[in-house]
Design brief:
The structure is a homodimer. With about 375 residues, chain A is of the alpha/beta class. Chain A has 2 domains: about 180 residues, Rossmann fold; about 150 residues, 2-Layer Sandwich (Dihydrodipicolinate Reductase, domain 2), CATH 3.30.360. The first copy, chain A, is built from 11 helices and 14 strands. In chain A, the strands form 2 sheets. Chain A has an 8-stranded mixed β-sheet with strand order 8-9-10-7-11-12-13-14, with helices on one face. In chain A, strands 3-2-1-4-5-6 form a 6-stranded parallel β-sheet, with helices on both faces. In chain A, strand 9 and strand 10 form a beta hairpin. In chain A, helix 1 packs across helix 7, helix 5 runs parallel beside helix 6 and helix 9 crosses helix 11. The longest helix of chain A has 17 residues. Chain A is globular, with a radius of gyration of 20 Å. Chain A starts with a helix and ends in a 6-residue tail after the last helix. The interface between A and B is large, with 49 and 49 residues.
Chain lengths: ~375, ~375
C-alpha cells in the first residue's frame, strides 16, 4: 500500500468530507476495525458511537458499562451481541473476543490509566480520551504498558484530525501569515454543579485538564514547537461549592524556542467560546469557534487584500470519524499515530508545570 | 455648577456625539481652553489639532516645534499668531502667554517628562500622551512638579473617554455579564524600520510601552481593580536591526484581587488588531477593533438570547475631543482628571514589573 501517513494527513486536510470518505474506503482491508467502547457517557453515546454509523473504517462490536440496561439499549442500536456487553469487573475477558481490535476509553479522567492498561494487556489497541490521565506517572505507565504489549496507544486529540485545524496549520506552515509572533487561545464554560469534572479525584484538575488542554495542544500543533517559560495564574472566585477541589480559572503565558509567545485562558466560571488567534508578520488568522464538534469558523486577513472566511463542513458526529479513521490506518499499516501516548504525556507534563507555576499541586 | 464629573462621565458614556457636544457647550465659561501643542508629529497634526476645529471647549493658541516652517503652516490653519510659535529653547516663555491654559505633550516618550515639567513650571496645565514617561522616577517627578505648581496633569488615555469603552465598563458594572472571570487583550502591529519607537532612548521600550499599554490599562479600567502576580515572556524573533534596543514581543498574565485573570499580548512584529474580550458567568463581551481612532466594534452575547452589536459612532479626529473636553471640565471646575498622573504612574510601575518578569530592564 502506498497510502502513507503524509498522504493521509494531507488528504484529511484538503478534502471535503464527501470526497474524503470514499478515498479512505478504497484503502480499507477486508474487515473494519472492531471497536469496544468503554463507558457510556455523553461523548460515547452522543458522538463517538453515532459517528461510527457512517464510518468506512470501523464498527462498534463491544461495550463496557456498569449499567447493563443502558448497555443493552445501545447494543441493540449498534448490533452488538449480548455476549459482547462487558462490565468493569469482567472487561479483561475482552481478550477472548477476536472481533475487538481497539478500545475507545471515554471514562472520567482518573480511570483512563487503569482501563488503558487493562485493554492493552487484553491485547487491544487503545484510543484514549484527553487528558490521557490524571498524573504524569500514570501517563508514562500507559505508554510503557502499550509498548510492552505491542499495542498502539493514541490520544483522542480530535482537533488534530479536523480539516479546519489542518487548514490553519497549513496556512501557517506555507508562510502565508509570515513569521508568527504570538498566539492567543481560550476555552472555557460556566460549569454546572454536580458534574464529575468538578471532583479532583475523578478529573485530576479543573478547566485546565478538561478544556484548557485544547489551547495548550493547539499552541503546540500550530507552532510545531514545544513551549517553555510557562508562567500561570489561577483563581477561585465563586465560593459556591463547585470549586472546593478544582480551580475555577487559569491563565498562562509560554514561549516557544523560535520566540513565539502564547497566552491562554481557561475557566469553569464563564462563557468562553473556544478560539485561537495567530498573529504573523503578514496577517492574522482566527478560528472561532475552534474546539466545537462542528461550526468551526476560520477567518484570516493577509496583507491588505486577502481575506479568508471558511465555515467548516464538519458535522457532529461525523467530526469524530477523522480520528478513528486515522487510528484504523495506523493499525492496518503499523504506523505510529499522529497523536500517540507521548503527545498526551507532553501535555500532562506541561499542565503539571502550569499548575506548579500557579501554586497548585503538580500532576 | 451642578455638572459633576460623575454626570460628565455618564453623559460621555451614553450620549451620541451630536447630543453630547451642545450639552458641554452649555457648561462652558466665557472662553475656551487655550491649547499649546508641543511637537508637530502625526498624532498632533492628523488627530489632536484637526479635532480641535470642532471642539466646543478648546482652541489651538500656540505651537512648539523644532521646525519653524512646519509650525508656520500649521499656525496658518489654526489662526495661531506668529508670536505664539515657540521652539524647544524658548518654550519656557509660554509663561508670558496668557492665552495658553494647557499644554498637549505629543513628543517621543523620552521627552514627556522634561516638557511636562517645563510646562507646569511655566504655569500651564498638562495633557501628556501615554506612556507618561520612560521611567518610574520621571513619572513621579512629573506628578510632584505639577502638584507643586498647582497645575493639573492628565495622561491622554483616550480610550477611557470613548463611549464604546464606557459602554463596556457599564455592561460589566451593571452585572449584565455576571461575575467576570477572565480578560484577554492584545494590541500590536508590524512596525517598519526607522521609527523613533524602535529606539529605546526615545521610546523607553518596545511595543509594551507603545501599544501593550492599551491592554494593560483596559484590563485595569474594565475590572476597576489593580493587578498583581504579573508574569511575562518577551522575545525577539526578527534579527533585522529593528529590535536591537527594544523587544519585539511581550505576553503576560496577571491576576486581580477579585480573582479575575487577564492575559495580554503585544508585538511590533505582527498584525494584531487591538481588542479585548471579557468573559463573565452570564456572557462574553468583545471590542474589536478596540483601540483605533474610530470603528470600535462592541459585540456581546449574554445568556442564550441577548446579543449586542454596536459599531462606534466616534469618528477620527472627533474621538480626540472627549479627553480634551474632560480636561476642560477639570480646569474650569477644579477637578482631578479621571486619568491623572497617578494613573500613568501605575501603568509605568506595572510595565516595569512586566519587563522585570520577562528578564528585561526595569523602567
Amino acid at each position: 500500500m502506498n497510502f502513507t501517513r503524509r498522504d493521509f494527513n494531507r488528504f484529511a486536510g484538503l478534502a471535503a468530507v464527501s470526497q474524503f470518505l470514499p478515498a479512505v474506503q478504497a484503502q480499507t482491508p477486508d474487515r473494519r476495525v472492531g471497536w469496544c467502547v468503554v463507558a457510556l457517557g455523553r461523548i460515547s453515546m452522543d458522538h463517538f458511537m453515532p459517528a461510527m454509523k457512517t464510518s468506512q473504517t470501523g464498527k462498534i462490536v463491544a461495550l463496557v458499562s456498569g449499567h447493563r440496561d443502558k448497555a443493552e439499549k445501545q447494543a441493540a442500536i449498534y448490533g452488538v451481541p449480548a455476549s459482547a456487553i462487558y462490565n468493569y469487573e469482567n472487561m479483561d475477558t475482552i481478550r477472548d473476543n477476536k472481533e475487538i481490535d481497539a478500545v475507545y476509553i471515554a471514562l472520567p479522567n482518573s480511570m483512563h490509566a487503569e482501563y488503558t492498561i487493562r485493554s492493552a494487556k487484553a491485547g487491544k489497541h487503545v484510543l484514549c480520551e484527553k487528558p490521557m490521565a490524571t498524573s504524569v506517572a500514570d501517563s508514562k505507565a500507559m505508554i510503557e504498558t502499550c509498548k510492552t504489549a505491542n499495542k498502539k496507544l493514541m490520544i483522542a486529540y480530535r482537533c488534530q484530525y479536523d480539516p479546519t485545524h489542518l487548514k490553519a496549520i497549513e496556512l501557517i506552515r506555507s508562510g502565508a501569515l509570515g513569521q508568527v509572533q504570538a498566539i492567543e487561545s481560550a476555552f472555557g464554560f460556566n460549569c454546572g454543579a454536580g458534574e464529575w469534572r468538578l471532583d479532583r479525584k475523578m478529573a485530576g484538575g479543573g478547566p485546565l485538564m478538561d478544556v484548557g488542554i485544547y489551547c495548550l495542544n493547539a499552541s503546540r500543533y500550530l507552532t510545531g514547537e514545544e513551549p517553555g517559560n510557562i508562567y500561570a495564574n489561577s483563581s477561585v472566585i465563586d465560593h459556591d461549592g463547585r470549586f472546593d477541589t478544582v480551580e475555577e480559572n487559569v491563565g498562562w503565558t509560554m514561549k516557544f524556542p523560535s520566540g513565539i509567545v502564547a497566552s491562554c485562558n481557561t475557566t469553569y466560571g464563564a462563557s468562553m467560546t473556544g478560539s485561537f488567534r495567530v498573529h504573523g508578520a503578514k496577517g492574522m488568522l482566527q478560528v472561532l469557534p475552534a474546539f466545537n464538534y462542528d461550526g468551526m469558523h476560520l477567518t484570516a486577513e493577509i496583507g491588505r487584500d486577502q481575506k479568508i472566511d471558511e465555515l467548516s463542513t464538519a458535522r457532529d458526529p461525523i467530526e469524530f470519524n477523522w480520528q478513528s479513521d486515522h487510528f484504523a490506518d495506523c493499525i492496518w499499516n503499523n504506523k505510529m499515530p499522529k497523536t500517540p501516548g507521548e503527545e498526551g504525556l507532553r501535555d500532562m507534563e506541561l499542565m503539571s508545570e502550569i499548575y506548579k507555576s500557579a501554586g497548585l499541586a503538580a500532576l
